[in-house]
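Could you please consider the sequence and fold appended to this message?
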Amino acid sequence: MSDDERFRPDVGPHADAARAALLRPAAPDAPGRPGRLTPALRTEAAVLAAELAGQPRLAERYRTLADTASAAVPATPPAPDTGASNAPASSDPGPADSALRAAVLAWTRLVTLAPARSGRAQLAELERAGLGAADIVALAQIVAFVSYEARVASGLALLDGAPAASPVVTPAPAAGPSPEPSFTLDVLTWTPWVVPVPADGLDAQQRAVVDAHATLSTDSPYYRTLLHVPAALDHRTHVYNALMYGRGGLPRAERELVTLLVSRINGCVYCASVHGRKFAQLGKDPEAARRVLDEGAAALADDPRRAALARFTARQTATPPSASADDVAALRAAGIDGPALLDAVHCVALFGWANRLMQVLGAPALPESCTGTSGPAAPAAVPATDLPSHG
């Protein structure tokens, strides 16, 4: 058992279970079932995302997982999916299948390399190619999960003295400019771009997932969107709660700082708002949170510990990750070692996963009752532990 498995023992098993739920989907009559997004196409998306992240060994692991599943499970025809094209399955790929594959891989590339550039129009391309809501959510979870696994693998390799990533053939840049993020500490709403599961229409599995986690609520359109694939949401929530709320390791305020920095780099306005407020509350310094939103890592230059944490975070957030042994040495010199260093690795990775769900499945906005001014009215007035993360 590795050090990270000993320190946060729930993380590994639930990450494994999330992977299996996404790449070896459930029976055709279960939520999150394979529709037009077949197991083969899921695997191809995962392999591409891993390769773009500089993790060829991880890509091979996904291929092996799919080969094992194909040998063990009889093929079943795709089940119809709400909102998806219900064209009959065919043993020979036709024009529709080719268009679907092209759309899935193009979207995978975009979300892996530049999640801030993926918007409603890009989801519409997946819908036109034949994917319904459950398939789109499953694809988002796959790409986001690979981002997480790639950064865990690269971070742990660094701790063992290996490079963070293998050389990658320069990928084609994502088309179009990135929108300029408008970061804020205001409380935001989030509107999905796919139809979420109705709050009063949960099936038994979906209801069981919500009931199993105090942090989940059907009041949230985000969670009801992710409930299209309930097993993935269940295991992801276990991973999230263990890493963000577990005892020991990196101080909670610094975990929130890491997630704030990752969200800012990825351009995730909603996550940056939530975790900026949590950092302000736990660190009892709202002004520091505002400076980080405005300036990024530069706001931390006068604090050697936070500056080292910010530099490592930025380089691990890149695709492929580019942190070096020097960055790890700087963390250790600043007193971040052992379990705290493992938390830093995992929290950076976790928000590669979180941002790539929040950004690509919907959009944030100020509530209609807000004036649009930036900054929270009283960030310390709400207990940080009670503030929903939606991460």
Observations:
- The beta strands are 189-192, 362-365.
- Residues 72-92, 370-387 have pLDDT under 50 and may be disordered.
